[in-house]
Each structure stands twice: as structure tokens, then as C-alpha cells.
Amino acid sequence: MSHPSLLALLGHPVAHSWSPDLHRAAMGRLGRAGAYVACDVPPARLSEAIRGLWVLGARGVNLTMPHKVAALDLAVEVTPEARILGAANTLIRGDGGWLAHNTDLFGYQVMLADATPERALILGAGGGARAVAHALSLVGCRLTVAVREPAAGQELLDALGIEGLVRPWHERHQGLEGMDLVVNATPIGLGLPGTPPGELGRRADREGPTPLEPEAIGRLRAGALVHDLVYARGETPFVRWARLCGLEARDGRAMLAGQAASAQAAWWGGPMPLAEYREALDALLV
Question: How many Cα atoms are found within 13 Å in the side-chain-facing hemisphere of 12?
Fold first, then answer.
């Protein structure tokens, strides 16, 4: 009989994440004994937390904002996926230290499915946006990145070796008519404490802010896709507005399931348990 494994999610904040519930449910389906805990760790304590998990014998670690970039420097080895994206969302226990890995790319490829958009607008420039940009570049999509700090958007494109257009946040509604896909890669819609309401978008019947103004969503052409990396029970405000406008919209649950299943495969080895993770997540987010 195998010994129970310790797994952890580190973020700041982290209470909103469904990852612990998802991993616990899927591990039960897979017959894997262990504990998966979420820990709110401020950036200044990240190194200490990761060292502590190593000492405790943890099998693996997930990382969410704002730790994905800093985690690279705390690993003894980095996988090609993490190196390309310049961020790690998964640490795997190795013989002499942590191996930094990134499952965001696979997660977004699960969400993208067989779509091959020609032009896309990415809202945000964080770790999730990097995975989205890389996945879309692999299918030949031309990219526009809208972000509050244009330098961050240009840094994203340069780091990935991608040519594209960067727009400041207040110009994010320009050129929507020509887009095949819009991806929300910001936390807008999560309702995190301290998120300013300013330019985030109007409230949709008190359901929360949207990254695009609702009337602007209606300017997207028929057949355009809307992807929201945010996920929730039911629909996120952005997904709801997009569907009201007759657009095909998906929230981030498919990406979350892909990320988590890929991490489990890396921690335990063996085949990718994607079906178990999708079933577990659908049961949680009814």
C-alpha cells in the first residue's frame, strides 16, 4: 500500500481557488491517497514555504499568482515548457530538489480544442496570458495584447519571440470587429479583494465586472469565440454577456482540468487522467 502524499497550492490570495477541491475529488476517483492543502503565502515568504514543503516530503506543489515567475529560481531544474513561458505553476519532487514545470500551455490547448483563430485579443499579460499567447502562436494566430502597462505586453511578446500589437488598457475596445477570439487572462470576474472597479467594465446586473464593456462585446463578429480563464459555478459575467450576444463562449474550467490533470501525471507518472479531472470539476461547479 502506498503512503499518503502531501501536495500543496501556494498563492496570494488563494482562498478563491477550486484547485484543492478538484485535486482531492479526482485523487479519490483515481484511488490515490494524499492531502492537498492551499496555503496563502506572501511573496516574501515563498522561498521559505517551498523549502518547508521539501523538508516535509511533499510530492508536488502548484503555484498561482503571484508566484509563477519567482518559483523558477527556486528549482534545481526547469522543463522546456516552463523555460519557454518564463513561469512555473507546478513543482515536481526530484532526487536533489524541485523540478519546475508549467502545465498552463496544455491547459489552454484543452480549452482551445480544435479552434484555429486567425486574429485574437488577449486581455492581460500575466502567466496565463503567456500560455495563451504561446498556444495561439503555434496555430498561426496574429495577436493583440491589451494591458494596463504596455511594457509588460511587449515583454510578453518579446519573451516568446512573437510579433504582435500591444494596446494600452483604455484602447482595448479598438479593432474588436476584426477579432476571431477574445481571451480574458486577467483576474477580472473573480471578485478578489482589492480589485479596483475603475476601468474593469460595467457591472452586469450585479453579477460582477467584465473585462470588456458589455456593449463592446456585441461588436464582435458572428462566429467569434470568447474565452474567460476565470471559472465559477454557473457562468462568469463575461461568458454570460458573450452568450447573450450570440457568441460561443467558454470559461476556464476546461483549462483548469487540463492543468490539474497534467500536474497529476507529472507527480505520479502514468497516463494523463484528463477525463477524471473534467468529471470531478463538472461535479464541483454545478
Answer: 11
